[in-house]
Amino acid sequence: GQARLYKFFKLYLLPLTEKQIALYVTGRFPFWHRGQRREARRVISAIPELSLRPMLLALVPDLVAQKRTVTELFELYEFMVESWLERESSWIDKARLRAFSEMLAVDVFLKRGERGFERIPRKDLIDLVEISASDLDQWRLTARSLLNRDSAGNYKLSHRSIMEYLFVVAFLK
Fold first, then answer.
1. Residue 6: φ, ψ to 5°
2. Considering only CA atoms, which of 68, 22, 89 is closest in space to residue 59?
3. What is the pLDDT along the chain (173 residues), one digit of tens a residue?
4. Radius of gyration of the chain (CA)
5. At what angle do helices 34-46 and 18-28 cross, to 10 degrees?
6. Other residues' Cβ atoms within 10 Å of the Cβ of residue 64
7. For residue 166, with 0-12 CB atoms within 10 Å meaning exposed, 13-18 middle and 19 or more buried, which class applies?
8. At 158, phi and psi to the nearest 5?
9. How far apart are CA 19 and CA 39, in angstroms?
10. DSSP per-residue codes, the chain
11. Rounded Cα gap, residues 159 and 161, in angstroms
12. Distance in angstroms (rounded) separating the CA atoms of residues 88 and 145
């Protein structure tokens, strides 16, 4: 009695409401940090796209703590990538990791049609490492926060928007 076809439904998340964002800010910055709350609200009001991207909204406390001023969405992506590069700088030069990450984003983006998805198989990733950065520890590249492995063993950048950002940066260079 079951149909031969399975139906899959897409679920779209709604943007965060102003109330949800306000609750996040008040929860993240206690009342005795009024100045930081005010600065967080200023950053959020300057970039309305934050209601669509909770991943970037989570960067606001770091921006406030570092007293960084951003007014554009691309600046938030740059801040996120730079923060990640700084965290990884204990084992690799930031410039080398950035260059590799941009090359990876270009490879994933340009070959998504032939691969059928926006991921890179382990073999292709190893080949890319051999071509561009043969002295890098492969295990470190595959165990870090911007690169995730799926259940089939393919790798992808942790978020599509990060891949798009790194692709555009590489394109502009």
1. -100, 140
2. 68
3. 677 777 777 776 778 899 999 999 999 999 999 999 999 999 999 998 888 888 889 999 999 999 998 989 999 999 999 998 898 888 778 888 898 889 999 999 999 999 999 999 988 988 887 776 655 665 566 555 578 888 888 988 888 899 999 999 999 99
4. 19
5. 150
6. 22
7. buried
8. -60, -25
9. 17
10. ---SS-------PPPPPHHHHHHHHHHHS-GGGHHHHHHHHHHHHH-GGGGG-HHHHTTHHHHHHTT----SHHHHHHHHHHHHHHHHTTTS-HHHHHHHHHHHHHHHHHTHHHHSSS-B-HHHHHHHHHHH-TTS-HHHHHTSTTEEE-TTS-EEESSHHHHHHHHHHHHH-
11. 5
12. 9
Written as one letter, the residue type at 29 is F
Q: Let me know how long the chain is.
A: 173
